[in-house]
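Work Package 3 (structural annotation) set out to generate three-dimensional models for the target panel prioritized at the project kickoff. During this period the team completed the workflow that converts sequence records into discrete structure tokens, so that structures can be stored uniformly alongside our sequence database. As a representative example, we reproduce one entry of 568 residues exactly as it appears in the project archive.
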Amino acid sequence: MTKEILVVDDEESIRYTFNFFLSEEGYQVSCAENYDEGVACLNKIDFDLIFVDIVLVGKTGIDLLKVIRQKKPHIPVIMITGVPSIESATEALRYGALDYIIKPVRQDALKRSVSVALKHKAMTEEKEKCRRNFEGIFRSVRDGIVTVDKSMQVLEINNAATKICGVRRQDLLHKPVNEMAQRCQGKCLTSLHEIIEQRKPLEKLYIECHLDDAKQQVVSITASPLLGPNNNFTGAIMLIKDETQLVELKRSLKKKHDKEYFLGKCEAIRKAKTLIKDLAEIKTTVLVTGESGTGKELVLEALHHNGDRRNKPLVKVNCAALSENLLESELFGHVKGAFTGAFRDKVGRFQRADGGTLFLDEIGDISPRMQLRLLRALESMEFERVGDSTPIKVDVRIVAATNQILPNKVADGQFRQDLYYRLKVVEIHLPPLRERKDDIPLLANHFLIQFNAKFDKNIKGLSSDTWKAFLHYQWPGNVRELENTLEHAFIRCHQDVITVDHLPPELHAKHAELPGRQNLSEEQEALALQQALQSARWNKSKAADLLGISRRTIYRKIKKFGFTFREA
């Protein structure tokens, strides 16, 4: 693009000479004879360079220079004079002239002046462009940014920082950064002082703070020294990020995990919950035992997500599902060519779980050779990949699970005793559902809520016969079977109460006894009685029929549990 140059001089010969020389170089030249013509040209064209004679008819070139600086400060101006003096040169430079040349002007000197001026303009424009971009980023970034000099005076603060800290930019610029702490405890400023004193960067630090009129918030602080052109220390920059929503989400997820992992009030479940809480932050190896479907994997989830490894890998291996050779490769990895089919290196589950938790499910089913290899890995937390002799060190928390009775397998010589005790540093045993039937109502209601959301239904509860069936059934599949049973019922149920007809066939048997006669707890007996009375709209004869007992027996049960008509 052709550069536009304006020449303002009252001598026609000078205007002609400049026009000739500059046009010859490919520039578009405009000429003005005096101040007024110069201002008129300035209003029409955005020039890249202006030459102005100091001495003009009427108003001077200095007067025009002032106007140019006011209207178009980005345009470089070179003053021309035939009578050079220190005073005129000083005045021209004081009002912003880029250069000062003396008549008569030589062509080579003019070319050099133009080249320098246009380069200066290009650099100034690039600098201004960078400044505008930086300001745009500075204003729009969501994280708070505060910069200070060596004396802790605020150089700049962006919109996000003013919002997070509850301050106004105009109240802080070029003032001590401590004034930011007028509405809070100023915990972040301690970190900034450390940067100034130690001149070392600060990694992300989480702090809790609250403004005097706002709720508590959590912010992360990162700070670094500011360095000048020669790597000299000039101050510090602090990044402030509002982490409140993220922290609240993590807390809510943790509460969700706590609620969903284990539902139950029986003594065994209470003990399991206490153990999980005690073990969550500890690396101790845990052995989880119990029948299939009791929720052993939920123990793993609770241990991992409630501990300090919650943000690290959680890797699971079903030992019973893999052959010996495949299990070895899965656990420890292999190198290319270690065996037929090993076409590339593979990272094992131990290595993938480094820093986190490794779950060894169905641990009772592994072969003697794998038992030995696993024992060595657990003892040193070090192993070699299949086909390699280079040891790999890992930091892994081991949680193992089995539905088998390992002491019996140890006694029979099918499981290594040393591995058993290595795994059983702490054992968490989950009882079968038939031994914790008091928890069935709690679990069933939990699954009702879950499946109502999943199937977009509004099933309000279970009929009394269904409760009877649930409390009499032995649940060989435990909690998993209860969950599957209710999912089956939800699929078949198109009303607001699940009845026995909606249950799988194995739960259809009609029961003629109140649950209390099957050595069930009084709480279960009372629950069945209450459900029957509610279903019969408090008609005792109908409730007795539902329960398969006599009117005399139901009156005795009502009296036993202290039910009144209103309570029922």
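The chain has four domains: 4-135, 141-242, 260-431, 434-561.
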